[in-house]
Automatic annotation (TrEMBL):
Tree of life domain: Bacteria
Protein name: 4-alpha-glucanotransferase
One GO BP: carbohydrate metabolic process
Catalytic activity: Transfers a segment of a (1->4)-alpha-D-glucan to a new position in an acceptor, which may be glucose or a (1->4)-alpha-D-glucan
Stretch forming the signal peptide: none
Enzyme Commission code: 2.4.1.25
Keyword Transport: no
Family: Belongs to the disproportionating enzyme family.
Keywords: Carbohydrate metabolism, Glycosyltransferase, Transferase
Length: 493
C-alpha cells in the first residue's frame, strides 16, 4: 500500500519557520494571542502559505519542545491571557512578576477557571464537557500526572511513591478524590489551549495558510505518555528504561549522541494495532494541516543504547516497525499528510521506506557546500517531492553560517551561485525559492537577515536555547513586497 499524493502538495508553496514562543508580546514568551494573528496577516502580505512550528507540548525546565510531558497536550505557556480577558473569562490580572513570569501566568489561568465556573455561558460550559469527553483517550491521565507532579515539586514520575508510580487503582482513586480541583484545572487549561489554537488555525486557513507541525519520534521518559502506557516501552519493573535512544558515533561526535529517551516495545504496539500511535497522530491531525516526523529513520532502524551506558558507543542498530506501521496508519486515516525528517545517517532502506509511502524528505542548503557535485542537498539534486530549507531550528542562522564557513566551502558556494555571496542570507533564500522542491521553508531569522546571535537552538549545548524572540520593528515596511516578488518569480506565491 502506497500513500497517494496529498492535495496540499499539488502546488508550489513557500513558508516560514517560527515557533509561537518567538512571537512578540506576552510575559515570558510569545503566545497564541494577537501577535499570532498579526503574524498570519504578515505572511499573507508576503504570499507565504505555510507556517511551520515546533512541537507545542508542555516543556520541562530546559524548555525544549522535543522533550515534553505529553505528546497530546498543548503548553499552557502558549495560552493568551489577552484573549481570555476578551472572552470574559479573566478579569484584569495584577502586573506580572518579572522575577517569575511563569508562576504569574499559571496564577492567571487559575483565576480564569474560577471566573469561567461563575460566569461562562451554558454553551461554553457544555463545550468544556464535550472537550473532556472527546479527549478521554489521553486527557484524564495527563491531568492526573500533571497534578501529581505539581504536588511533588516537579519530581519525575519514576521517583514517586510506588503506588502512584505504578498506577495502583486505589492510590490513583485516593489522589483524584483529594486533588479534584488541580486535575480539573489542567483539563480547563487544555480546553483553552485547543480552543485558541483552533481559532488561529481557522484564521490561517481562511487566508490560504497551512499550519505545519512536528512529531518527535521518541518521547520524554518523564511524561504522562510513558507513565500511563508503560507496556508500550522497554522499561524495568521500577519504570527506569532498559535501553535508550540516540545516534551512533559519526563525523560530528566520536561518542555519538545518547539522547536518553526510552525506546518502544514495537512488538507490543504491533499487537494493539499501533493504537497509541494512532491516537497520537489523530491529535496532531486535529491541530495541523501538515506534520513532520522527526528522526524518521527510526521507523526503519534505530540506535539502541544500554541504559547504563554513559555514551552511545555501546549501542546497536535494531529494526523498527517499517512499512507495517505506515500501512496501519494509512488504513486508519486514508491519507498521511506527513513529512519525513530524513537527515543524518540515512541508507537505502530508509529512502525506500520514505519513497514507498510517497513521503517528502528534507533538503538543507547549509549542508550543501564544501563537497562534491553529488551532494544530495545541492539544488541540482533536489526532487519535487521534497522540502528545501536554508536551515532549521537546529542550525545557525544563514548569515551566521556564512560568516563561519571555511575557505573551501565559501569558494564552493560562490562558484555554485555564480556570484560573490555578499548578499547573505538573501542569496540563499533565493536559491531555496528556485529549487524544484514542492515546499520551500525559510526561518524568520533568515527572512530578516539576522546573524548567529539570533539562533534558536544549539544542539549539545546546555542552557540558552529555545528563548529567541523577535520584535515587530525588525520588519522593514518593504519586506513583504520583496518576499512576494521573490515568490511570484519562482511560482510560490
Amino acid at each position: 500500500m502506497s500513500r497517494p499524493q496529498h492535495p496540499i502538495e499539488v502546488r508550489r508553496r513557500a513558508g516560514v519557520l517560527l515557533h509561537p514562543t518567538s512571537l512578540p508580546g506576552g510575559s515570558g514568551a510569545g503566545n497564541l494571542g494577537h501577535a499570532a494573528f498579526h503574524f498570519i496577516d504578515f505572511m499573507a502580505d508576503c504570499g507565504l502559505s505555510v507556517w511551520q512550528v515546533l512541537p507545542l507540548g508542555p516543556t520541562h525546565e530546559d524548555r525544549s519542545p522535543y522533550q515534553t510531558t505529553s505528546v497530546h497536550a498543548g503548553s499552557p505557556e502558549l495560552i493568551s491571557l489577552d484573549l481570555l480577558q476578551e472572552w470574559g473569562w479573566l478579569e484584569m490580572p495584577p502586573a506580572p512578576d518579572p522575577a517569575d513570569p511563569d508562576a504569574w501566568h499559571l496564577e492567571c489561568l487559575r483565576r480564569a477557571r474560577s471566573r469561567f465556573q461563575r460566569h461562562a455561558s451554558a454553551a461554553d460550559q457544555a463545550a468544556l464537557r464535550e472537550f473532556i469527553d472527546s479527549h478521554a483517550a489521553w486527557l484524564p491521565d495527563f491531568a492526573c500526572y500533571q497534578a501529581i507532579k505539581d504536588t511533588r515539586d516537579g519530581e519525575a514520575w519514576v521517583d514517586w511513591p510506588a503506588p502512584l508510580r505504578d498506577r495502583e487503582p486505589q492510590a490513583l482513586e485516593a489522589f483524584r478524590a483529594g486533588h479534584g480541583e488541580a486535575i480539573e484545572q489542567v483539563m480547563f487549561e487544555q480546553f483553552v489551549f485547543f480552543r485558541q489554537w483552533h481559532d488561529l488555525r481557522r484564521y490561517a486557513n481562511e487566508r490560504d495558510i497551512l499550519l505545519f507541525g512536528d512529531i518527535p519520534i521518541f518521547v520524554a521518559h518523564d511524561s504522562a505518555d510513558v507513565w500511563a502506557n508503560r507496556e508500550g516501552f522497554l522499561l524495568q519493573e521500577d519504570g527506569h528504561p532498559q535501553v535508550v535512544a540516540g545516534v551512533p558515533p559519526d563525523y560530528f561526535s566520536e561518542t555519538g549522541q545518547r539522547w536518553g529517551n526510552p525506546l518502544y516495545d514495537w512488538e507490543q504496539m504491533s499487537r494493539s494495532g499501533y493504537s497509541w500511535w494512532w491516537e497520537r497522530i489523530h491529535t496532531q491531525r486535529d491541530l495541523f494541516d501538515l506534520i513532520r516526523i522527526d528522526h524518521f529513520r527510526g521507523f526503519e532502524a534505530y540506535w539502541e543504547i544500554p541504559a547504563a551506558a554513559e555514551t552511545a558507543i555501546a549501542g546497536r542498530w535494531v529494526k523498527g516497525p517499517g512499512a507495517a506501521f505506515f500501512e496501519q496508519m494509512l488504513t486508519r486515516f486514508g491519507d498521511l499528510p506527513l513529512v519525513a525528517e530524513d537527515l543524518g545517517t540515512i541508507d537505502e532502506a530508509v529512502e525506500q521506506l520514505r519513497d514507498a509511502f510517497h513521503l517528502p524528505g528534507m533538503k538543507i542548503l547549509q549542508f550543501a557546500f564544501g563537497s562534491g557535485a553529488d551532494n544530495p542537498y545541492l539544488p541540482h539534486n533536489h526532487v519535487p517531492l521534497s522540502l528545501v530549507y536554508t536551515g532549521t531550528h537546529d542550525n545557525d542562522t544563514t548569515l551566521g553560517w556564512y560568516q563561519s564557513l571555511d575557505a573551501a566551502a565559501r569558494e564552493h558556494l560562490v562558484a555554485y551561485l555564480g556570484q560573490e555571496a555578499t548578499d547573505m542570507p538573501r542569496a540563499l533564500n533565493r536559491t531555496a525559492m528556485a529549487s524544484v522542491a514542492w515546499l520551500s521553508v525559510v526561518p524568520l531569522q533568515d527572512w530578516l537577515g539576522l546573524d548567529g546571535s539570533h539562533r534558536m537552538n544549539q544542539p549539545g549545548v546546555r542552557g540558552g536555547n529555545w528563548q529567541w524572540r523577535f520584535e515587530w520593528d525588525w520588519i522593514d515596511a518593504d519586506l513583504p513586497g520583496r518576499i512576494r516578488e521573490l515568490l511570484e518569480l519562482y511560482g510560490r506565491a
